[in-house]
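Journal club side-thread
Mid-discussion, someone asked how the predicted structure for our own chain would compare to the paper's figures. Pasting it here so we can look after the session.
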Amino acid sequence: MRGSAFSGIRVNEDERVDTEKPGLAEGEHRGMRDELEELKSQLRQLRAERRLSMLGLELRAGLGHTTVSKALNGPTVPSEATVAALAQALGAEAGPLLKLRRQALPAVLAPPRQQAPKDSLDGDVDARFEERYRRYVEQRHGQLSVIGLDLSRPERASWPLDASYLSLEFATSTRAVGQGGSAGFSADSGLASPVGSGAQMETERAEQALAGLRRVLVRGMAGGGKSTLLQWLALATAREDLPVELANLKGLVPFMLPLRTLVRGGDLPGPQEYLRAVGCPLHAAQPQGWTDRVLDDGRALLLIDGLDEIPQTQRAQAQQWLRELLAAFPRATYVVTTRPSAVPEGWLAGHGFTELTVRPMSARDVAVFVTRWHTAALASADPGQEFEHLAALEEALKDTVRSQRDLARLATTPLLCALVCALNRDRRGHLPHGRMELYEAALSLLLVRRDRERDIDAPENLVVTEHQNIQLLQRLAYWLVRNGQTELDRETALALIDDALPAMPNLAQQGDAADVLAHLLARSGLLRTPAAETIDFVHRTFQDFLGAKAAIEARDIPLLVRNAHDDQWEDVVRMAVAHARPNERTTLLRRLIARGDRTQKHRTRLHLLATACLEYATELDPEIRQEVEQRAKALVPPRSEEEARTLAAVGPVILDVLPGPEGLEEDEARAVVETAELIGGDAALTLLKKFRTSYPAWWALSNAWKSFDAHDYAHEVLAHMTHLEAVTIRSREELAELHHLPPLDHVAFIGDFSGAEMTTPWAPADVRVLSIDRNPTLRDLDFLHPYTGLKRIAFFQCPNVAGLKPLAELSLEAIELHGCGAARLEDLKDLTGLRELGLSMELPNRGLGALPIGADLTRLTLGPNACAQLTLSGITSWPNLNRLDLSGPVEGLPQAMVELPELRDLILVNNAGLFMLEQIPTCPQITELYLGQWRSGDDLALVRAKFPGLQDITIWAYLGCRRVDLTPLRGIPDLRIRILHALEVVGAEHFPPESVIRTPRPR
């Protein structure tokens, strides 16, 4: 997708511009082709220079694959917004690229505005009135309103349209590749072409979907933005402020014709009556025959809104009225809107109409809508504090919508998104408690108030009350919930409604079940027919809300508890708690935790679901609240990676009960971040944003990058972290975001990145620690020259890195080589400042003394391969060695321990272990010991005997035996002990509590 010229939102297709159109001279053709090819060549060159993959460029620019591919390689002219987005993503000046784009456009794309003829008195009068009428349209349609919204300050129910308009996505038919022709229209006539068997569905933004078309039928659900689209077309056409894709509308005169208003006068009006019929105060001043002349000249844009909003009996009349207009004024442009079920498919196809369907808003659309809504709201805000308050509301609301799944599923149409924004502002940032008030307000708006306040009276020939609507919809929703379905067939829906009608005699007298179902499909805004003879809820949130209400009314608490372990029932159970009366709520929660107590398999999920239900419990017995909270304390917050995995297995519901960062210990902060990372998604990202200033969580936050969209995470989390010290780059999408981050101390690259990619497009001079892992393509290290501040470097599994001489040009203090069999160690002889060396690879000689290391090392790490091959003879070449890290048994250890008086720290990991101490003499100089493998039968008495000066010991008891007995160490003065992942620790009572640290901390 890509941004439209008007809205700046992402869209799918580039303009339908044919640079080979008839009427252009051959030289003009050639000039346009040259400029177009130059534009695309420059874009391709910029991508190559930035070393961005296509996917990386798409993510960075916020554009779809098709859009970027066409912009760089296709035959069409990319839109202005696409070029601007690509320029920004590529770090280039947009001006020269946009100039090339303008030069590549054919002259016929933007025809000069067609003015009323001024060579006669009538023409002069027409032109003056037309300008006056355009100014009226600007004023009349410059505000966007939500009709039926209940706010404490009604003036807040409208906002400037130009600031709040969002270009929505449309589903449109197009021919399959190879079928020929354009996407459902003729380039010559602008009328719809028959779509044959090769038709496919394609998603485009409004500007692209409407480009070049003169007859369009737009279908969309209630509140989907159909009327707003027409309002924006009227405003943009009147102002002549159209995006380039809609250049064919330039110079047209818009007529906004809501059918619900036109039918009140009886017969639908003729052209001369349009202004009077819609209440335009200029109708008496219009020149005689002006509308007729505008229509006949092909300069009229007829925006006919709401076929679904007139009674069924009048739709045939409306169709005939439209046919007569088409016959009389074939050159005019027509855009007609309706809800999907009001008229059958192909209703106007015989008259050259292209049918477009409004798509639900994406998560990105919702975020942009919230931003634009708040920007528009500033126009009516009081200066000062309210400006700041609106800015805070915007960011908080975006996070709330993303973090709450039910809200995210609800806010997929402009109407409901605006409802959320307006109620949030009206409640000063406090969405209705438990969000139930919001759902009730939305139901009332969709079911009754919007039609009533627009004077739409029984268009389906039925008068249905709000209560009746809800009762009928509850029946359908509860059937779906009980049966674990998201769709039901028409026959089942009719049977459910038929069963309900005897209890609604007033409604039963007006029609049968089929009539009622037709009404619900056409007017409720909640149901749709995704396929023939199939019905579902547009918003899963409403299905769960109504199903939960029905369950409580039916006293089906046992059913709710019995299914509570199923993630499809999570929101139903939570909303049932909200719908329930206090005694029902207590019963439901008590049974929920009781089932968790006795069911080991589902215990964690059920207890955490009960905890998540507390926010919906506006009134609850304090005793049951305490019982629920006690269960949660045994699980939340997590304290280790293992506990994080257990909680993440419960699913997204856990995100609603995870605390922090305030009040969390260091291990808890890290584990909460790890839990959210394992769950992933927008809700998890919103939670992680809270931890951006938490120092204990910085590494876990950095490590979580791999689990989220690279662009979003970099801009919303990493770029705002106050303690970000290190990142790991695993993809080129992450690499493309590196320059947005603050200066980094430590960078790791995992994968086959080239040397050039690891130095551009960011500045590596600040990096002190560099790690390169699993890179079989890397050979030359000359790319390291810009790393002027580098102190430590590590290579893991880089088998083709050979020459190490470039390292001598850096002021390195530490080098590690693991799995780098081709590396020439003799190149390290000139690194006199080296203090730490790590090796795990096949070496040319067995003895350490043969290594060409002239530096005075203080730390030496030997991996499994080195330990298996080497002897420690010659280790005395480094008399100041104070740390030795071994990954397995190694020849010469006893002698080395004697000959290294400065050795303080011994680390035994992987295949190394406590058994190696049996052969060594007493070593009083050793003060720190790390045991990375704890085996059954290991006895710490050996440690006490060999290291009488021991001050610190760490024991990792995760992979082997998980029981540790500390008793043999009792009596050692001031000993600090750290034990990781042991399930049982014996003898800790012999030490001060602060001397023994267990990770994770016992509960």
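Post-session note: The chain is about 40% helix and 10% strand.
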